Amino acid sequence: MLPIRRLLPLLLALSLGSYASAADAPRTKPDPAQAAKAERAGAIKRLAFWSDALAKPLEQRIGVAPKPLIEYIELDNQQQGFPNRPRAPALSADFLRDVRAALAGLPAPVRRAVAGKLAGIYFVDDLGGTGWTEEVVDARGRPVAGVIVLDAAVLAKQRANAWATWKENTPFKRDPRWRLAAQIEPPAQDNRVQAIQYILLHELGHVLAIGTDLHPSSGVVPGDLPAQPPYPYYRLSWQVAQGRYVTRYDAHFAQRKDVVYYLGARLPGAQMADTYAGLGRTNFATLYAVTNPHDDFAEAFVTYVHTELMGRPFAVRIFHDNKQVLEYGACWREPRCADKRKFIEGALGLK
Questions:
Q1: Does residue 269 belong to any structural domain of this protein?
Q2: Any long-range contacts for 52-61 (C-beta under 8 Å, 24+ apart)?
Q3: Where does a domain end: 155, 186, 209?
Q4: For residue 87, what are the domain limits?
Q5: Which of 155, 178, 203 is the last residue of a domain?
Q6: What backbone phi and psi angles, to 5 degrees, belong to 19?
Q7: 11-52 pLDDT, tens per residue?
Q8: Counting C-beta atoms within 10 Å of the first and last residue's C-beta, which end of the chain has fewer, N or C?
Q9: 170 shares a domain with 257
Q10: pTM of the shown model
Q11: 37, 92: one domain
Q12: 294 and 186, same structural domain?
């Protein structure tokens, strides 16, 4: 599960015309083959590329990623330093059936909210993460829609609770005396459909935020934000210090700065309980939410929909020497998350 990535400067300069000035283009002559690939890939940023997909019913916007989208991710991976090289997958009938079931099972308010903004859900192998969302811009360069890419090879073997447990362990170094277990489904529903649905909901949270004033766009450099940025959801938890996003809780939540998912654990396993206890004194819905403003909203969105609209469980349990010492649950009925709940309900048209 990855946040929306920054736009590719080279890609934009080569292929988006008015979206990048001539001064931004490379001074050295680009390789012709790479330039052609960038030109094709750059089309996926334009709303016109997705007009046919957006005209289809929501459940039909599913399939193998088109070649320009794969090339876009490949170029992005190269720039971001990911070794992964995405490719078109072979999607089995039973896998597609599970994806459609996951989409069909979403609450009606979610489907209505994203119907006009979701260009589609597309699959690759070797994405470099579980999921990825990119903004799509209109003819004036304004973000208006989003495209979701999921790694089929990763999702094909996932069950909901095992995936959630793996994800929530990634910030912590292994310690034989400490253990974390996450639950997002009851045993009878702990299957691949529910894993896909939960992961998809997170990415749909990114899509829903595109073109709104909830938080800064992924292309915004933190240091460029004004002292009082016009993003009301963002201001509940975030600010900028020394050109970086930091939370308003950092002075009293020492572990926050070392919370890193997927890219190498920094926190000792023995700090699991203290970290989640500290999280419970913030207005963040999950630990992953403290990593950046974009995932703050996406994690709030998925946990609210999952627990409040769908009545599913959400629990992170910490064990020391096989004895449970802490349980962290959904915050949506606690005062600490009341303000964020209002924004989620507003975005879903529930007010």
A1: yes
A2: 53/119, 53/120, 54/116, 54/118, 54/119, 54/145, 58/103, 58/111, 58/114, 58/115, 58/118, 59/100, 59/103, 59/104, 61/118, 61/119, 61/120, 61/121
A3: 155
A4: 9-155
A5: 155
A6: -80, -10
A7: 333 333 322 223 333 445 556 766 666 777 889 999 999 999
A8: C
A9: yes
A10: 0.89
A11: yes
A12: yes
Q: Which portions of the chain are predicted below pLDDT 50?
A: 1-27
- The answer to whether residue 4 sits within a structural domain is no
Number of domains in the chain: 2
Query: Taking the CA atoms of the chain, what radius of gyration do you get in angstroms?
Result: 20
Q: What is the pLDDT of residues 246-278, one digit of tens each?
A: 999 999 999 999 999 988 899 999 999 999 999
Same domain, 147 and 185: no
